[in-house]
Amino acid sequence: MSSSPTATAQVGVVGLAVMGRNLARNFANHGHTVALYNRTQARTDDLIAAHGSDGNFVPATSVEEFVASLERPRRIILMVQAGAGTDASIDSLLPHLEEGDIVVDGGNANYEDTRVREEKLRARGLHFFGVGISGGEEGALNGPSIMPGGSKEGYAQIGPLLEDISAKYEGEPCCAYIGPDGAGHFVKMVHNGIEYADMQFIAEAYDVLKAAGLDTKAISDAFREWNTGDLDSFLIEITSEVLDQVDASTGKALVDVIKDAAGQKGTGRWTVQNALELGVPVNTIAESVFARSVSGHTDLRAAAQANLSGPDQTFTPDDVATLIEDVRQALWASKVIAYAQGLDLIRTGSLQYGWDIDVAEVAKIWRAGCIIRARLLERIRSEYAAGNLPTLLAAPSISEGLANAQSGWRRVVADATLAGVPVPGFASAVSYYDSVRAERLPASLIQGLRDFFGAHTYQRVDVEGTFHTEWSADRSETKEA
Ligand code: NBP
Questions:
Q1: 314 has binding-site annotation
Q2: 335 labelled as ligand-binding?
Q3: What positions does the domain 6-phosphogluconate dehydrogenase C-terminal occupy (predicted)?
Q4: Which of the four pLDDT bands, split at 50, 70 and 90, describes residue 387?
Q5: Domain 188-437 bears CATH identifier 3.40.309.10
Q6: Where in the chain do CATH 1.20.5.320 domains reside?
Q7: pLDDT given at position 1
Q8: CA distance 473 to 468
Q9: Taking phi first (over 0 means left), then psi (-120 to 50 degrees means alpha), and beta for anything else, what does residue 308 get?
Q10: Alpha-carbon distance values, 63 to 40, 68, 93, 196 (Å)
Q11: Residue 116: is its pLDDT beyond 70?
């Protein structure tokens, strides 16, 4: 059904910078007629000039014209700068929309903002979707991984279109309904948190091999080889490409002339902030966010470089092949821990907000298109699909893999530490592994200390109840009523 004779577009894209432009082309390449609107007209004109012949586009010069060009219910994808850009775009559209229309925010919004926006638009009879889109500009054009959160009713209208343009893994779309309101953006946030950890581990693997004397070419070869096995993933694949790149002006490896201060846009920080609020230990993700932060603190680093000494010991492996295998094990095992922590956060967030997220479906839609796509995800999907796992680490094939990897993993952490090479990600991952498998943790002493200075009480292993020791009196124990 059309709202006017000119309403010919099945989907509309607002915001035609790199992501929106490529997503619009992706829809067009799949045979959909795409309405286009951008605040600054020049971007719309550029897209039509460069790619207008790729498919059916309906460029609009005003919001009114854009809305009028869409079939009902209108399906509008916002690909604008997250935050103020999203709110401004929604506000400009609202007066022209009608009940049942669907507005999708495909930007990297904070899920809490998405919850607020969803409630606001729902009150007006509209479906609002917070949709995580991963894959960068290439993915937006050729098939991203898509994580939609919103109403099931709205998904029936927008889902098939999103599934159509998503990446495919063995023919299956990397897009599935995640849950209501903020669920999609929450999952995208955690995806990005895992991405931070993945990249930190890769950087540490590179650093350890470099400290052991391998040149950049040899390290690149190791990554290329790893990409043919269990570590097969987009990030491992592009690591060898980045390492192979030679700087035209100096003739050095490009990685050696790039300033060693890592940037961040905030989704890693959000992941950690939410994990703290939900009480979920995502140690490896937190270490990765902090490692980027340390790298950017140039004043702190300059002061430390001038004053802090390292060990006399250097990293001199007896056998390079063994070291490379150890680093591979450290990389694989640490990556598993990061996934376990991230998926635990998703499971907990889902319970907290009543989203009912299927973790197996999340792993399924991450298998292709997104930045963290990896061979490991199919195993994770099948393990979650097989049973209700309390943690990924409880899955038999995963625990077995970690047991096999642990000797190399531990050697890398120990040898790197002895040689003064920082491995915060690897060390954090192995500590988490040892913490969660430990029969008894020293938290008992922490409880004793808390009771000593603050009468915070403790529980006993042998008797039910809450207890306090009269530390400043006769040190007898009392049971709380
Ligand atoms: P940007 O994040 O750079 O945003 C540029 C777009 O936002 C332009 O179309 C611009 O319009 C529009 N915009 C701004 Br800025 N303020 C606006 C306002 N007040 N009202 C209306 N439009 C406004 O673009 P991008 O890199 O293509 O990313 C788009 C979204 O996708 C972002 O939320 C981003 O976080 C997310 N994302 C990006 C990537 C990536 O790899 N780049 C990956 C995944 C998700 P103008 O032309 O008039 O200035």
A1: no
A2: no
A3: 184-472
A4: confident
A5: no
A6: 442-480
A7: 38
A8: 12
A9: beta
A10: 12, 8, 7, 37
A11: yes
Kindly give, in sequence order, each residue whose CB lies less than 8 Å from that of residue 99, ignoring residues fewer than 6 positions away. 124, 125, 126
Q: Which one, of 69, 116, 66, lies nearest residue 93 by Cα?
A: 66
Per-residue model confidence as pLDDT tens digits over 147-171: 999 999 999 999 999 999 999 999 9
pLDDT in the model for residue 163: 98
Residue located via tokens 């009771």? 451
> Three-state DSSP class for 251?
coil
pLDDT in tens, 174-188: 999 999 999 999 999
Which residue in the list 71, 118, 195, 361 is annotated as catalytic?
195
Which of 47, 79, 104 gets mutated to test ligand 1 (max ligand atoms within 8 A of its CB)? 79
- Token pair belonging to 437: 């498998």
Q: Which atom of ligand 1 is nearest to the CA of 84?
A: 19
- Do the annotations mark residue 456 as ligand-binding? yes
Q: What is the CA radius of gyration of the chain?
A: 26
User: Mean pLDDT, the chain, as a whole number?
Assistant: 96
| Per-residue pLDDT band at 301 (split at 50, 70, 90) | very high
Yes or no: is domain 11-177 CATH 3.40.50.720? Answer: yes
Active site residue: 188, 204, 361, 364, which one? Answer: 188
The closest residue, in CA terms, to atom 23 on ligand 1 is: 85
188 is catalytic: yes
What's the 138 CA to ligand 1 centre distance in angstroms? 16
Q: Closest Cα to atom 37, ligand 1: which residue?
A: 107
* Residue that has been written with the tokens 């893999």 in this structure: 401
Which residues of the chain does CATH 1.10.1040.10 include? 188-437
Nearest-atom number in ligand 1 for the CA of 18 is 27
Residues with CB under 6 A from ligand 1: 15-20, 38-40, 43, 79-82, 84-85, 88-89, 107-108, 133, 136-137
Q: Which pTM was predicted?
A: 0.95
Question: What separation in Å is there between the alpha carbon of 136 and the centre of ligand 1?
Answer: 12
For residue 383, CA distances in Å to 15, 228, 390, 392 come to 39, 22, 11, 8
What is 442-480's CATH number? 1.20.5.320
- Residue 136 marked in a binding site: yes
CATH 3.40.50.720 domain residues, the chain:
11-177
**pLDDT recorded at residue 365:** 98
* Confidence tier at 3 by pLDDT (50, 70, 90): very low
Tokens, residue 419:
């040689």
